[in-house]
Amino acid sequence: MSSESATTSQKSRKKEVLESVVIRFAGDSGDGVQITGQQFTTTTATLGNDLSTFPDYPAEIRAPAGTLAGVSGYQIQFSSGDIHTPGDRPDVLVAFNPAALMANLKELPSNSIIIANTDSFEALDLKKANCKSNPLEDGTLGAYQVYKVPITTLTLKALESVELPHKDKERCKNFFALGILYYLYSRPLETTLSWFQEKFGKKDPKLVEANSLALKAGYSYGEACELFHSQYVVPPAKYAPGTYRNISGNEAIALGLVTACKLAGRPLFYGSYPITPASDVLHELARHKNFGVITFQAEDEIAAVTAAIGASYAGAVGVTGTSGPGLALKSEGINLAVMTETPLVIVDVQRGGPSTGLPTKTEQADLLQAVFGRNSESPICVLAAATPADCFATAMESVRLATKYMCPVMLLSDGYLANGAEPWLIPKAEDLPKIEVKFHTDPKNFAPYARDEVTLARPWAIPGTPGLEHRVGGLEKSHIHGNVSHDPENHDFMCRMRAAKIQRIVQDVPAQSVEGPEDAPLLLVSWGSTYGSIRAAREAAYHRGIKVAHAHLRYINPFPANLGAILRRAKRVVVPELNLGQLLFLLRAKFLVDARGINKVQGRPFKVTELVSTIEQEAKTL
Predict the structure, then answer these.
(1) Which of 26, 239, 358, 374 is least surrounded by CB atoms within 10 angstroms?
(2) Spatial separation of the C-alpha atoms in residues 314 and 326, rounded to whole Å
């Protein structure tokens, strides 16, 4: 934490102004860690701070309570300036039990704040967390500011007058802890109090009363107790004028799809099978039936993708969503869309793999599957979102390209973007891109596989249109007429034509931009969710005197037309990825550049500090 000045407040307590703070809430899944973090985030967004969040769920869905495997975390960085990541290391850790403390201790910088729920540090709790002694008492935490608070006991005492079962009262302890944090960082209570009413008001008013009392009691405890010697203020950030909302990547994808379909004047069909961390796209879209959205929870991944293809064939915008294992199952269906040349958007929210892998952890390892993961010559367009808010624009672009070029488009997101959140400037309707859908209606000289001269797209003819009857299916089609064909020359021609159509998309791809000096000898090339960390690392390295530039790719297939020239201009190209070198492989193969990789597959995003260290090492070798 960086402080600028201090003033005197009530009870002679200092009020320090901070530029930015990183807070991590940690505990069991049943401790309400994610809800606590989300409420702190929502309140912080209303105050106008820039923010970035990182919810971190346990990989084991039913890990035993109190164990290291069951620790759930939620990290937020909020600032009065411009930030790009949830922060490398927390300034504050709220630990609801020993496992939460020990799982996160190695990431805490010295002198950081630890607020520990002492009621959960009994002998059995310590044993579950593999602690031989109590870290609150044995000197383990000597380098930190430790605040021992009996959060559960104080919560129950605050709720003595509320007629609820003991277990329900105990569940309110997360809001007592939230109240303490609201006091420490000068956050108002009103946003969360209103949320209680909205969430529980109709179900059980006693829950509204209990949670409200716990929140207020936590705030009062922070205000009255002698533990805390300072209170902190993080001023609002300076934003461009407009209306903002806090948005996650999955929410942004859903809203982007809805917006694109409204602009196109076509209904949206979303076929999906539940899978972490993509399921929230389905949940969000199900709320928007009033915008002509049809959601279909299929019996499996194959049914989900083929239903979406059928919807597109019938004139809707067909979309299917999944994560890595589900994408593998959808491959045959995606190939059907390639062969029939039908618009299809595939949303892949990547996660740790292979196989079931790490269902709740983030990774960028589906890139080669997206580009090549189907049988035979089966090219599709591949886009990747950079931030949670960017998921909105990338979803819209996916629909635009799929319908214009009559082809599948894959939108790559990941768990980090899906669950993370940031402020999003809500665009004005007049500033949104145009999406025009043209159906063929004239039966005169109709040929189902005739080509548009510019896009090479075949006509989109809705079934039932008189005179436009034609054959579709997975067997190879003859050029122009679309009859089933086993002719070798025709097959060669059609394979080349489908590939050429995808490459024609480059005419709709904007020139690749570069952040930093264009003549920098060191160039960082990235894609997807690594954008924020790499941008922050580039800025930090540049301020240390290292001349470094950064090119972040949204368009993976096809690449931007000027990318080759950008790569050849640099003396050294470095490609950071949360995989073992997949974009690196594509760049080396396509442009024959001697690029180097920075690779990490730990289920966690890059830290800015580790990237800066690598940049410094690379710069020394130039």
Answers:
(1) 239
(2) 24
At residue 456's C-alpha, the angle toward residues 451 and 457, to 5°, is 75
Closest to 104 measured CA to CA, from 43, 47, 25: 25
Other Cβ atoms closer than 10 A to 300: 11
Return the CA Rg of the chain: 27
Q: What's the pLDDT tens digit per position in 89-131?
A: 999 999 999 999 999 999 999 999 999 999 999 999 999 999 9
Q: What are phi and psi of 404, to 5 degrees?
A: -75, -40
- 84: amino acid identity, one letter: H
Q: Judge contact between 94 and 24, C-beta under 8 A.
A: yes
Which residues lie closer than 8 Å to 273 by C-beta, 6 or more apart? 297, 298, 299, 300, 301, 303, 304, 322, 326
Each residue's pLDDT tens digit, 420-457: 999 999 999 999 999 999 999 999 989 999 999 999 99
Return the bridge partners of 8, or none.
Answer: 14
The interaxial angle of helices 608-620 and 531-543, nearest 10 deg, is: 50
Q: Which of the 8 DSSP states describes residue 352?
A: B
Amino acid 73 reads G
**CA separation for the pair 250, 347 (Å, rounded):** 10
Looking from the CA of 199 toward its CB, the CA atoms found within 13 Å total 15
Angle CA(604)–CA(607)–CA(613) in degrees, nearest 5?
A: 135
Rounded Cα distance between 272 and 322, Å, is 7
* Model confidence pLDDT, tens digit, residues 547-590: 999 999 999 999 999 999 999 999 999 999 999 999 999 999 99
**Segment among 223-232, 326-335, 515-524, 588-597 with least mean pLDDT:** 223-232
In this prediction the pTM is: 0.94
For the chain, the 3-state helix, strand and coil shares in percent, each to the nearest 5, are 40, 20, 40
Q: What is the pLDDT of residues 123-165, one digit of tens each?
A: 999 999 999 999 999 999 999 999 999 999 999 999 999 999 9
Q: Are 54 and 416 in contact (CB under 8 A)?
A: yes
Neighbours of 470 (CB within 10 A): 16
Name, in order, each residue with C-beta under 8 angstroms of 607's C-beta and a sequence gap of 6 or more. Answer: 88, 89, 533
Are 214 and 175 within 8 A, CB to CB? Answer: yes
**How far is the CA of 421 from the CAs of 75, 369, 376, in angstroms?**
11, 27, 38
487-538 pLDDT, tens digit per residue, is: 999 999 999 999 999 999 999 999 999 999 989 999 999 999 999 999 999 9
- Separation CA 269–CA 265 (nearest Å): 13
**DSSP bridge pairs for 71:** 28
Helix axes 205-224, 190-200, angle to 10 degrees: 160
Contact 312, 462 (CB under 8 A): no
Please state, rounded to an integer, the average pLDDT across all residues of the chain: 95
Mean pLDDT of 395-401: 98
The answer for residues whose C-beta is within 8 angstroms of residue 317's C-beta and 6 or more apart is 257, 260, 261, 264, 266, 267, 268, 269, 311, 343, 345, 399, 402, 403
CA nearest neighbour of 261 among 300, 217, 315 = 315
Phi, psi (5° rounding) for residue 409? -130, 130
- Helix ranges (H only) for 350-487 are 367-372, 390-405, 415-419
Q: Which of 267, 180, 174 is nearest to 218 (CA)?
A: 180
